[in-house]
Design brief:
single chain; mainly alpha; 6 helices; about 60% helix; about 0% strand; extended
């Protein structure tokens, strides 16, 4: 009996030494094995099940199939008409109306410009004075305070140009390291 208890406790001691912890005393090991039973590792080989024996059920791609046993001309015509109306509805939904763009307000345009140029102190000063004048009623927000599309387009083109120049610079640097 002592030989049987020596094997699990020595295995536990090896595990404790490997982990660097003292999990249990020698007496606790014997109690744990007796109460829980011994655990053994087994080598198991799992073989893949052959998928050739499995029968697959074919499911049609369209949802407009008529169930078997209910095939008649009236239902077939009704299904075709429903499918035609569904496609017409989907085509009507797919046609998008032109996107209505809201022009940028002048104060937003100026704020974006100041941010882009890195003029944060000027931006803070502008915003505080602008909103102070609005509060006092000296300046009114008008519908005419919108930036013409030309300026907005120029700003977008400048941003795109900067991005493209940056990409070109990166590509040139990468091309220097390529050896043919």
């Amino acid at each position: 009996m002592a030989a049987q208890q020596g094997t699990p406790s020595s295995a536990l001691r090896v595990l404790e030494e490997a982990l660097g912890t003292g999990l249990s005393a020698a007496g606790d090991t014997a109690e744990a094995v007796a109460s829980e039973g011994a655990y053994y590792l087994e080598q198991v080989t799992i073989t893949e099940a052959s998928e050739d024996d499995y029968e697959y059920e074919e499911i049609p791609d369209d949802n407009y199939s008529i169930p078997e046993g209910e095939e008649d001309l009236a239902k077939a015509v009704q299904m075709v008409q429903e499918q035609a109306t569904d496609t017409q509805i989907l085509e009507q939904k797919a046609v998008f109306s032109p996107k209505h763009t809201v022009p940028e307000a002048i104060e937003d345009f100026l704020c974006n410009f100041l941010i882009k140029m890195g003029m944060t102190r000027t931006l803070d000063c502008f915003q505080s004075e602008w909103y102070e004048l609005i509060q006092k009623g000296v300046t009114e927000l008008r519908d005419g305070g919108i930036v013409p599309d030309v300026y907005t387009q120029n700003m977008l083109l400048e941003n795109e140009n900067k991005i493209l120049k940056k990409d070109l610079k990166h590509y040139k640097q990468a091309a220097e390291y390529v050896i043919f």
